[in-house]
Write a structure and sequence with these properties.
The structure is a homodimer.
Chain A lengths: L1 H8 L7 H8 L3 E5 L4 E3 L7 E7 L1 E7 L5 E8 L3 E2 L2 H6 L6 E4 L3 E7 H10 L1 H26 L3 H11 L1 H6 L2 H8 L3 H8 L1
Antiparallel strand pairs in A: 1-8, 2-7, 3-6, 3-8, 4-5, 4-7
Helix pairs in contact in A: 4-5, 8-9
Chain lengths: 187, 187
């Protein structure tokens, strides 16, 4: 399990055994069942999560009850309500498991410790953050271009495995289209 | 001008004169007139920009000619086509000046140099990247909730100064609503 984390980090940087040992000691692991919550809206967000296996959705629920999916995350991805995590405030989003999910998690204090004591890890997370930003920019663009068909095809191309694993109703909530529109696009 | 950059950095971290000197020597400055392009779509993106004064829009143009505004940036903000900058590819977006704009800019090689040689600067940019991610997440949410009125009010609350400085047609392109809808909301 920690090997998965090491492989993930070593796609970008190389760590000695001692350095990886130092890093991994700041993480803990936990398993969740399908439908369980990793983060519940309104609760303090103490951790950032690295997904070892499984699939999650980060959800925002309007007061009216309508739900929106901010992002999906699966093995090899980092996920949290990052605003709440970094500012140590209650969650605005909930993080729910679509499949049985196993995670490694780290507290903000430990995250700051490994970044300040190991320059290479700070670089690693800086690059992750940059590419998170790029993905978000792409998503914004995709929502602005307001063409449901193009949005659907872009997602299909970027993350083909999502289409096997995610129920159609959730894909529709992610794309910001109705279930009926999605069926038409997928047909 | 470099004092503005120093003040901006020192909101988060403290630098000695020697350290700031090291940092500032990796930046250059340039002035642009209103309507000039800092980045043109299709050209290589060599730099990331720190805005000293002025106001810019990051624009995506569809093949049909329809334009979408990804983001506005003004004094004290960092802006670029970050995907193109970080992967050293041609720009998908253009960065245009809405007002006369003065920037400091840094190349990717120099950015990597200052981050790897000065741990505190890597931490500074990591925090910037995190909060860029949070802002993007908020924008995604605002586009998903698909309520033009709420979107307008959120923007007004977050960036009141934009409303004095940005023409209504550009605000509409940012919010993803028609000029007519915006007039109705602002009325």
């Amino acid at each position: 399990m920690y090997e998965t984390l090491r492989k993930h980090i070593e796609k970008q940087i190389t760590l000695t055994d001692e350095e990886f040992d130092f890093v991994q000691h700041h993480f803990k692991s936990r398993k969740y069942k399908r439908h369980q919550f990793i983060i519940q809206e309104g609760e303090m967000v103490k951790y950032s999560y690295f997904i070892i296996s499984g699939l999650t959705k980060l959800v925002y629920q309007e007061e009216s009850g309508k739900s929106h999916i901010i992002s999906f995350a699966m093995e090899d991805w980092w996920e949290s309500d990052f605003n709440a995590f970094l500012t140590q405030q209650p969650a605005s989003f909930s993080l729910e498991c679509i499949e049985d999910t196993e995670v490694l998690y780290i507290s903000l204090a430990d995250y700051k410790t490994i970044c300040s004591q190991l320059q290479k890890i700070a670089s690693f997370f800086l690059e992750k953050a940059h590419f998170g930003n790029i993905a978000a920019q792409r998503r914004i663009l995709s929502l602005l271009t307001s063409n449901a068909k193009a949005r659907y095809e872009q997602l299909l191309k970027q993350y083909p495995s999502l289409f096997q694993r995610v129920p159609k109703s959730l894909l529709a909530a992610y794309l910001g289209v109705s279930r009926e529109t999605l069926s038409r696009l997928a047909g």
